[in-house]
Amino acid sequence: MSATSRQYAELYRRFQAPISKVYDCGKKCAPLNNGTPFCCDAENAIPIVEKSEYALLQSRSDLWKPFKPRDKQQANEVADLKGSDCRAVECKGAAHCERDNRSLACRSFPYYPYFNAQKELIGLAHYWSFEGSCWIIHNLTIVELPFIQQFVASHEYLFKTDPAWRDTYIGQSSTHRGVYSKRKKKFPVIARNGDYFWVLPNSGGEMVPAKKSELYELRAGFPGPEYK
Ligand code: SF4
Ligand code: SF4
Q1: Total-model pTM
Q2: Which of 13, 17, 111, 173 could disulfide-pair with 124, CB 3.0 to 4.6 Å?
Q3: pLDDT per residue as tens digits for the range 191-200
Q4: How many whole angstroms from 39 Cα to the centroid of ligand 1?
Q5: Ligand 2 pocket member 106 (CB < 6 A)
Q6: Measuring from atom 8 of ligand 2, which residue has the nearest CA?
């Protein structure tokens, strides 16, 4: 069963920490996207929320409205949601962001809850399609512990109320391993205690500790030295 609006309100209460108190990452990526942070641009990713989450947001603010497709592909994506518990939405834009009324997806980006092959929740892994766009993905050592802890705790709360979300992310984690195995590349995971690991390709999801010095090499994947 979907989480209720009341449960989303509790989830929001538990998940308020910024990804970093030091860096405003939107200032790092926006110059590459005509001044709009990539994750706040519906052209890059249509925000999807559960109907119960949308009802909560509507009761708190006029920040969000139904998403209007701009082209056929977007119309198809929206049509795919018909009959589901989810709907496509969009906010008024980054200039009008209301911190307390960000969706769970906004709060979590660029991370999703990573499960190992044994279906244990390990921590955070990134949405790989935003590599090269999202500055955080290339600078993950700046992600702060309160964010990590609240990310994990709030998702554990969500999984208790709606086990289907757990299955979704177990599938997403498996796909991530498959994509990187095809690339013959390892990918980083931030564990719930703030430690870093590599998930090795073609290994059944084996994890080995990652040194910060190794993670710094990911910075080279973000375009333009001026944005590092
Ligand atoms: S999370 Fe990533 S895409 Fe979003 S504002 Fe920060 S750097 Fe940009
Ligand atoms: S609510 Fe804020 S963080 Fe979420 S998409 Fe809109 S501007 Fe970005």
Answers
A1: 0.95
A2: 111
A3: 999 999 999 9
A4: 6
A5: yes
A6: 40
